[in-house]
Amino acid sequence: MQNTLLMIAEVLRRKTRTVMVGKVGVGSNEPIRIQSMLTSETTDLDGVIREIRALDQASCEMIRITIPNRKALDAIPEIRRRMSEDGIERPLIADIHFNPQLAVDSCEPFEKVRINPGNYADRKKFEIREYSELQYAEELERIEEVLMPLLKNLKSYQRSLRIGANHGSLSDRIMNRYGDTPEGMVQSALEFLRIFKKYNFHDTILSMKSSNPLVMKEAYRLLVLRMEEESMDYPLHLGVTEAGNASEGRIKSAVGIGGLLCQGLGDTIRVSLTEPAENEIPAAKAILRDVEALMNSVSGNISHASLSEKKEVPGESSAYLSTGNPFFSRANLRTENFDDVETIMLKPSGCRIGPRESFKLMAWAGKNSYPDPLKVFDARLEESTQEQILALEDHAIEAGLNEVNFEEFRSKILLLKSQNPLFSLQKFKQWVSPKLMPLMVGFELPVMDSVEDHLGLAAELGELITSGQLHALVCKEDDPESISACFAKILMQAARVRMFQADFISCPSCGRTFFDLQQTTNLIKQRTAHLTGIKIAVMGCVVNGPGEMADADYGYVGAGPGKIHLYHGQQCVERNISSQVAVERLIELIRSEGQWIDPAEASTA
Ligand code: SF4
């Protein structure tokens, strides 16, 4: 029994090649690497060195720097000199948008170059256009030509590359053919990846980031599926963009990054917070700590080919697969014979998601199936419906569930009281006939001193909620303001199943930022957090901000020193207003759209 438990608890890490970033290896034979990005401009040498020292001390393994122009690139040799004076050897990564020549020239001073396939070879014109197959092929030839100088320099300086696609930042060509979807993100990266592969360059890492953890997770899973189809084994860099700050930013990142790690996907991670860069490292470590406990680092993976046909697998294996296999969608697991849990039909998911709207539908899919889905229950639930609840604790799982006679017990609610909910639920499903499965599965949260100590738990619970397996979170304390109740609310909002306050998307800031993003984000949060159900983006620059705020309802975007653009959806409605009045004007804009309520009214609602 013990062996079986151990086997099912393991997550198989997806097998990849190793890509060297300087002396740091990235891939499944290596530990999962933690990285971050500077917020200072490279021309602010003292600021840059201060940040690099803090990141180095926090054990950040790779440091990314935005290179928006030639001046920023020219500052790198001096930064290197100061780093070596301090004995700091961390690899540096250039972050390039819109300027292919800067990427080409970054190959010499940087260990790795990150490019965005949405804006490397294309200028966005928001054109609606149908491409014939021939026209599309011509476009790909043009991209190949634009990539040649970069390819040459990457090879001659022996540098690595990240092709980083971002939701909301795709080329017109991709948008017209695939839309702003996970499939579009994946195809955007694959167009570039195939060209590098064709010329025998393989030191490539890929990322599929979005501020929405559900979009990001689907995009990464789909990317892995598509890479398997083309026998590609490139490592993954995981991140949720513009996650925000404080507990919200950390939990959103845990749901996205941690959820994928729980499935064996991911080789390097960045927790992107609107806070000092060094704060990202403990958050990343906290997510990794719990997930790595589940992880069997290099034992191999399950090939796509083995799942391309419907096949029968024993029940035990299905539990194993569902935690370790990137191609497996739980929605596709169904039993052919409800009396016999040993025989389960399994087919690959294909992972297609379609237009953005379907995420909302997916998130609310359980609404009609359960009396009150995804509610934060208080302690009274347990008292009032005691006979309907089966509470399952770790010791019962370890004992093989022998203490409970399931045939006699037809409970409506399964309440997991476990330190490892992902594993416990898989184990429970393995033991219990599907016809006896409770209508609702809940998880009892531990009493918490801080949200930050439970990011691994957020990752597991987020995975269960977004995959439709968990329907309720239960707080032991009868206090809606307790830390565990706050954790539950933020987690459900991050998993897009309930909204308890305005949702904030804020970029981490970088050398392109034109204002104090941390202070402004906090101010906007203070003024608008009570507006349940709307999304507000606070973005540092007009270069990437409008694209990457994706599905925000309102946007506050830096347009130049002291200047702000305001957006309603994707439309810029006020240009170059003074930052002195911009927060008030944002509130006026929300009011004019009929979405403002006064805080006092909200608290009595
Ligand atoms: S939105 Fe602009 S300022 Fe913010 S991190 Fe991205 S590039 Fe930097």
How are the SSEs placed, and which strands pair?
Layout: H1 2-9, E1 11-12, E2 19-21, E3 24-26, E4 33-37, H2 45-57, E5 62-66, H3 70-74, H4 76-85, E6 92-96, H5 100-106, E7 112-115, H6 133-156, E8 160-166, H7 172-178, H8 182-198, E9 204-209, H9 213-229, E10 237-238, H10 246-261, E11 268-269, H11 280-294, E12 295-296, E13 311-314, H12 315-324, E14 334-335, E15 343-346, H13 357-363, E16 376-377, H14 379-384, E17 389-393, H15 394-398, E18 413-417, H16 421-431, E19 440-445, H17 455-466, E20 472-475, H18 483-494, E21 503-506, H19 517-528, E22 535-539, H20 545-548, E23 554-560, E24 563-568, E25 571-578, H21 582-592, H22 599-604
Parallel strand pairs: 1-12, 4-5, 4-11, 5-6, 6-7, 7-8, 8-9, 10-11, 16-20, 17-18, 18-19, 19-20, 21-22, 22-23
Antiparallel strand pairs: 2-3, 13-15, 14-15, 23-24, 24-25
Helix pairs in contact: 2-4, 5-6, 6-8, 7-8, 8-9, 9-10, 10-11, 10-17, 10-18, 11-17, 12-16, 17-18
The structure holds iron/sulfur cluster.
The site of iron/sulfur cluster has 14 residues, from helix 20.
Overall description:
- This protein is of the alpha/beta class.
- It folds into three domains: 11-294, Dihydropteroate synthase-like (TIM Barrel); 357-494, no CATH class; 503-604, Sulfite Reductase Hemoprotein, domain 1 (2-Layer Sandwich).
- The protein is built from 22 helices and 25 strands.
- Strands 9-8-7-6-5-4-11-10 form an eight-stranded parallel sheet. A five-stranded parallel sheet has the order 16-20-19-18-17.
- A hairpin with a 2-residue loop joins strand 23 (554-560) and strand 24.
- Helix 5 runs parallel beside helix 6 (133-156).
- The radius of gyration is 24 Å and the shape is globular.
- The N and C termini lie far apart (52 Å).
- The model is unreliable at 1-10 and 296-386 (pLDDT under 50).
- The structure holds iron/sulfur cluster (SF4).
- Iron/sulfur cluster is lined by residues 66, 507-510, 512-513, 539-541, 543-545, 548.
